[in-house]
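ok so dumb question maybe but i'm new to this and my supervisor (M.) told me to 'just get the structure for Bcr/CflA family efflux transporter' and walked off. so i did the thing. is this what she meant?? sequence i used:
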Amino acid sequence: MTTTTTNNQHAVRLALLLGLFSTLGPFTIDMYLPAFPQIVEQFGTTASLVQLSLTACLLGLGVGQLVMGSLSDVHGRRNPLLISMAIYVVASLACAFSPNIWTLIAFRLVQGFVASAGIVISRAIARDLFSGHELTKFFSLLLLVGNLGPLVAPVTGSGVLSLTSWVGVFIALSLLGIFLLASTKWGLKETLPVERRSPSNFMQQLRNYGSLLRDRTFTGYMLAQGIMIAGVFAYVSGTPFIYQNIYGVSPTVFALLFGSNGITLIIGSQLVGRMAHRVSEKTFLVFGLWLAGVASIAVLLVAYFHGPLYALVIPLVFFVASIGITSTAAFPLAMESQGHMAGSAAALMGVIPFLLGAVVSPLVGIAGEDTAVPLGVLILATSTAAMMSYFLLVKKGARQEA
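this is what came out, is it supposed to look like this??
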């Protein structure tokens, strides 16, 4: 009993620490969202260019995971994380003091690139230490902390904006980077021993990625999860203007509406983690995909007929909840047989949503700032594509092998 309790306490402490690194992505993405209109006015630019700064961050987060995942397989988990956190602090300060929108966009790319280390390496560490249902349970615990990012980040950003300008948001992010740098230095041990590391060979790393992409089952789970999360980036990019410009809510109300969906993410992920021994991850994944499809149809209908705010918020709540379910279920299913190159596998699992999100985000504003229809179209398209990825690659592949 004592040993079990000690192990549980250690798992909770580790999940708390790794979860903090996972929150770096959501904080980097979400914290400045309430400042979008202010940045437009400050630089005398357009909403699309401000959204391009989000796109640059997402591209950095996506490409960075491929690099950081490979580096962590070769050099271990700890050193790449230390260097990345140091650069993150510098990039955040550079964003704060950008003289124009293009400089901000450039440093958002750098900021996203190094922030990716927190996401991909924390997940690789989880796979270093756990497998099977234990990985599912630990990953849900990690997401419990990590999903607080979308809940807290916009509210924190709104609070900072009530005291200072958008510049203060990026200064706050630099302070977060300093805290994570210290946490890496003094609170994180190496989990990948030298004998388990990949050779320092660029071509071998490319072959690892090629091997993963040829694995039909892995690719199916990766795309199902990644495309679903790309739909959330459409939500992230579009709601600052939809809520504030179309429905006229204040930055504080927007932050509360946006942040409250973090609760649904937590509920979805914890449901999978708590029920992992009773309901299979595959069952949860399929349920989450269908839930996303129904919710996205509802969003499109409300947007098309100009429904009231509450009619838009409710299906968006269920859509975001489906992300918590599908992400928690798909990750252990995809990673189960990839222990020998967990960093590279975690990188691919992470890069797809950010690369697709970088494409999807600007499309939300393609019809202007006075309609929510593009948001409905985009999340319906991503939900449908994610479902097709699972059924065509995973289910059909399993039937063919049988």
